[in-house]
Amino acid sequence: MYTQQTSLPIQASVTSASRLVQIGLAAFLGLFVLGIAGFSHIEAIHNASHDVRHSLAFPCH
Fold this sequence. Notes:
The chain is mainly α. It has a domain at about 15-55. It has two helices and no strands. The protein has helices at about 15-40, 45-55. The chain is elongated, with a radius of gyration of 22 Å.
């Protein structure tokens, strides 16, 4: 006879220090990507980021 075993869900605890590090890294990555793409001298990268900023109503002029 088949018996189904139930397992308890595993709960991951996230400390406030870990959450702060995650937020900091996400902000750094966002600023890095925006800065590199925004100030790039390669026109294709600059124009692509410019179009994305306009589509998100981000002021860039």
